[in-house]
UniProtKB/TrEMBL annotation:
GO terms for biological process: protein lipoylation; regulation of DNA-templated transcription. It comes from the Bacteria. Biotin binds at Q37, R41, G42, R43, K108. It is an enzyme of class 6 (ligase). Its EC number is 6.3.4.15. Signal peptide: none annotated. The lineage of its organism: Bacteria, Bacillati, Bacillota, Bacilli, Bacillales. The chain holds residues 82 to 327 of 327 of the full protein. Acts both as a biotin--[acetyl-CoA-carboxylase] ligase and a repressor. This is Bifunctional ligase/repressor BirA. GO terms for cellular component: cytoplasm. Residues 1-181 form the BPL/LPL catalytic domain.
Length: 246
């Protein structure tokens, strides 16, 4: 992982470049890294604010030999790698909010966006986008984000060396994707759940058509959130915005 690194000073979105490279046949483990995105994108067609030289904005092209249902597991693996890298470099204690937000003291420090590239022959590549807020001060965030977003430097009280963090991130991504490929998801599920702020809590899951409140009991092998509502039913949540109810 990281044998091929494409670095650009500025771009609309590293996801777009990664998709292009993947289409042109770039090898497994290719990284696209930039200082600034002018049209960074987030989950659910949202924008991703990507201030110049303050964060890590990167996309990873993976070409795993997996069946499509297994693809979401790589996103969970990436979340574990990000948490471990942040812990190692800053000593902070991040938590994962299902599916893939990395929170520090309840505020979002990192978002992960996984996209598939497929054609008639099946999935050709997974493009995992990681947006990590590193050295922003609160004023660097747009006003509407100031209550919900944070950066590593806000939380640790010092500037963080982004190069060191990228290095740690790449090394943990390699360790955990290899672990996943060699041993399966069991160990990683345990790690993911141990870092999760969602599991064991009563949460509200807002979905496109309904909102459900219940206890988040765990995730399945496919990363589906298992939510137990008051009537005792277990619901599989595939895509939602999660809020803690307490
Ligand atoms: C989310 O939480 O909604 C996911 C945000 C993902 C942002 C990263 S930044 C690098 C990559 N390029 C993008 O345009 N998006 C992802």
């Amino acid at each position: 992982l990281g044998q091929t690194i494409h670095y650009v000073e500025s771009c609309p979105s590293t996801q777009i470049i990664a998709h292009q490279l993947a289409q042109e046949g770039t090898p497994d483990g290719t990284i696209v890294l930039t200082e600034e995105q002018t049209a960074g994108r987030g989950r659910l067609a949202r924008k991703w604010d990507s201030a110049a030289k303050k964060g890590i904005w990167m996309s990873v092209v993976l070409r795993p030999d997996v069946v499509p249902q297994k693809a979401p597991q790589f996103t969970l693996v990436a979340a574990v790698a990000v948490v471990r890298a942040i812990e190692e470099v800053t000593g902070l204690k991040p938590e994962i909010k299902w599916p893939n937000d990395i929170l520090i003291k309840g505020k979002k420090s990192t978002g992960i966006l996984t996209e598939l590239q497929s054609d008639a022959d099946g999935i050709q590549a997974l493009i995992i986008g990681i947006g990590l807020n590193v050295n922003q001060s609160l004023q660097d965030f747009p006003e509407e984000l100031q209550d919900i977003a944070t950066s590593l430097s806000i939380e640790s009280g010092k500037l963080v060396n982004r190069q060191e963090l990228v290095r740690a991130l790449l090394s943990h991504l390699e360790i955990y994707t290899d672990l996943y490929i060699e041993t399966g998801f069991g160990m990683l599920k345990i790690l993911w759940e141990s870092y999760s702020s969602t599991i064991g809590k009563t949460v509200r899951a807002r979905m496109a058509k309904e909102t459900l409140t219940g206890i988040a009991e765990g995730i399945t092998e496919d990363g589906v959130l298992q939510l137990r509502t008051a009537d005792g039913k277990l619901h599989g949540i595939y895509s939602a915005d999660i809020e803690m109810t307490n």
